[in-house]
Amino acid sequence: MDGAQDTEVSQEFLPLIRIYKSGRVERLKGNDVVPASRDSPSGVSSKDVTISPDVSARLFLPKLVDSAKKLPVLLYIHGGGFVIETPFSPTYHDYVSSLAAAAHVVAVSIHYRLAPEHPLPAAYEDSWTALQWVASHAKGGGPEHWLTDHADFKKIFIAGDSAGGNITHDLATRAGEEGALKAGVVEVVGSILIHPYFWGTHENEPKDVDPKLWAWMKSFWKFVCPNSTGSDDVLTNPLAGGPSRLARLAGKRVLVCLAEKDFLTVWGRMYHDGLASSGYKGTVEILETKEEGHVFHLFNPECENAKVMLKRVVDFINRDD
């Protein structure tokens, strides 16, 4: 290997990732990891499992008050622009642990393959593999006893932030279209999209955002999804698939969480409105947090707005309808 090539930058998308001419990939964020452990004082236990050669996960089990009572399942998909972060980072370990404790759910935080080494749709396929793995435990089979012993497979929720919010929509759509999760045995009850990574055509771009940002977005999307059809690919713009496809989304309810100062919020609102008017038979809810930016709850989980959003998510999961 030419040493000069290993220091010469070929491509970079700051502040996330840098690619060198040698092919070396340098991730600039989300590299720290923490071990699975019992969290104190919440009493949440966690452990890591292998789902397939390409997919793993960190599982979270809250302190059991009644060991016979079955708990909802939360499949959580981390963000990071499809290129950084893992369920094992302090950020996502702490956040999903807090969800498991507050909502009293068995949480499965997915470790999917990252671009550019594994361009999209790898992350979508890996997340689907994880959902099917969870469902495989429904009749008492499957290798993970935290699921077979404690999970209520008629109460599965899919959630994710940013890129994970994007994948959440794809999973719920696929579950609704393919019928792979049999009603009465395994059911996706709801989806939670937190600051989802959606965007679309130039005509829908906010007028007060630097045009260079949208040029960055388009270039970055081609970087993570080289075979994409562009700005109106249904993977990045679900509205492009039309209302009939939106209406096939699995579940009884959807919660879309947005942040006022997030440049993606305009598309999050359009997603909410489009789903609500699509003929989807469930309820579509929205929570927009004022004076906050993209994934603020991960950076400042103790702020009042993060606590309000956490409570809304917990109430959404624990609702009896």
How would you characterize this protein structure?
- The chain is of the alpha/beta class and about 325 residues long.
- Helices cover about 30% and strands about 20% of the residues.
- The protein has nine helices and eleven strands.
- The strands form two sheets. An eight-stranded mixed β-sheet has the order 4-5-7-6-8-9-10-11, sandwiched between helices. It has a three-stranded antiparallel β-sheet with strand order 1-2-3, with no helix packed on it.
- Strand 4 and strand 5 (about 55-60) form a beta hairpin.
- Helix 2 packs across helix 4.
- It is globular, with a radius of gyration of 19 Å.
How is this fold's topology laid out?
Layout: E1 9-13, E2 17-20, E3 25-27, E4 45-50, E5 56-61, E6 71-77, H1 90-103, E7 106-111, H2 122-135, H3 145-150, E8 151-161, H4 163-178, E9 188-194, H5 211-224, H6 243-246, E10 253-259, H7 265-276, E11 283-289, H8 296-299, H9 304-318
Parallel strand pairs: 6-7, 6-8, 8-9, 9-10, 10-11
Antiparallel strand pairs: 1-2, 2-3, 4-5, 5-7
Helix pairs in contact: 2-4
Sheet-strand content, in percent, reads 15-25%
Can you write the helix and strand succession as a string?
EEEEEEHEHHEHEHHEHEHH
Q: Number of helix segments?
A: 9
Give the structural class: alpha/beta
Give the fraction of residues assigned to helices. 25-40%
Provide the low-confidence segments as ranges.
none
Number of strands: 11
Compute the average pLDDT.
Answer: 92
Oligomer: single chain
Shape type: globular
The spatial strand order of the largest sheet comes to 4-5-7-6-8-9-10-11
Largest sheet: 8 strands, mixed
